[in-house]
Amino acid sequence: MANPNQEIKYTKLFINNEFVDSVSKKTFETLNPANGKKLADISEGFKEDVDIAVEAAKKAFKRGSEWRNTTAAQRADLMLKLADLIKRDIDILANLESLDNGKPFESAKGDMYFCTMLLRYYAGYADKAHGRTIPTEPNMFSYVRKEPIGVCGQIIPWNYPALMVVFKLAPVLATGCVTILKPAEQTPLTALYIAALTKEAGIPAGVINVITGFGPTAGAAISTHKDIRKVAFTGSTEIGKLIMEAAAKSNLKKVSLELGGKSPLVVFDDVNLDEVVPLAQEAIFTNSGQICCGGSRTFVQEGIYDEFVKRTVEHAKKRKVGCPFDSNTQQGPQVDQVTFDKILTYIEYGKKDGAKLEFGGKRWGDEGFFVEPTVFSNVTDDMRIAQDEIFGPVQSIIKFKTLDEVIERANNTEYGLAAGIFTKNLNNAITFANSVEAGTVWINCYNATAVTSPFGGYKLSGIGRELGEEGINLYMETKSVSINLAANV
Length: 489
Description:
Distance between the termini: 70 Å
Number of strands: 22
Helix content: 25-40%
Largest sheet: 7 strands, mixed
Radius of gyration: 23 Å
Number of helices: 15
Strand content: 15-25%
Shape: globular
Structural class: alpha/beta
């Protein structure tokens, strides 16, 4: 049940299965983006706290430890217990997410269901990350082992806080790794609550550690720590580059990055506009536009362009913006003042660069960080709103003529996270899917992410893939072993 007065129980660092103050005793505020008011004071972690968490993780991963002696089947059981606990507390977690992030309660609840699905999926993989035997020479027996990397660092964003926690923790638990996870400073509440649930589920001390704090301090300490063997980051391309640099300069730790996007969504003139207009708009407006794979470049074929724009504006006018705990709300606030200001700045760029503002473009309401659903037409590829990741509810509608043309224009970006196409023509759909430079392509749907399908990007949108079997491989080392069967030693 939606409850805007949900109790906030956990505000401290989670290290070695205990909630503790940071060494410095410093705290920072986490705010409710719907009104800008303080929700809680959160312990602020620094390098010293990361060091303590790493020692706890190293102890948990030490050969002969409880965690290292846990079988794959037992790890799967622990993951299923954690999924059950998230399901049990789904309303609490959704309330905390809506308070801290601003997303509508029902959307937050949907995220929690996805968390349980993800844990159950990877629980099934815990005893299937196995090696193989290899034919080599006569009298030789060779095999390959898959082994956990060990101590990991994981840094997650604020747009899908709980979901990103589980994106990262599930493969760690399935493979037998240990981790130090840093949630975004804007949205720490659900990460801390899930940390408490990992202890309740019976996951041993030191396996999961959560350090709340800021990127330049806690995040940098994770990225540069020489005892962390792998770092996973979801967030902006700018920060991803810094993390990769830090990983290289410290101990050449393995890196996986899921970064920004400027994804094309192509609409051909053979579609049913009654169906496609709402889907194309939701592709970018979902989660208040705060989605890395959002369809932020809406390419529409010239024959239906004017009608598409007209219907899109009509649809945007009906979109319900407001309190995350109102069951009718479709769009909540942006996460913070910085994000709010950036979006309004880009809306001004759009107007200055010659795009036509069809609807929205202003603050919604008189408190919090709400932005009106915004629609631009007459957008061209060289405009800043068509090139840069805005991360807000801004739909840019761009005209195109032919398939070959739109493929070239869709690929004319530094990003390559996702892409989509709406058409009845199967040849056009498959040609586009095979030609577009993107890690995920959706045909006649959008944002149809599944736990079973790998997710990640080309070019500046990242390195590596999460979800699916590929997500397991990010946390495994490959070891070759050869035995001389004829040896007399």
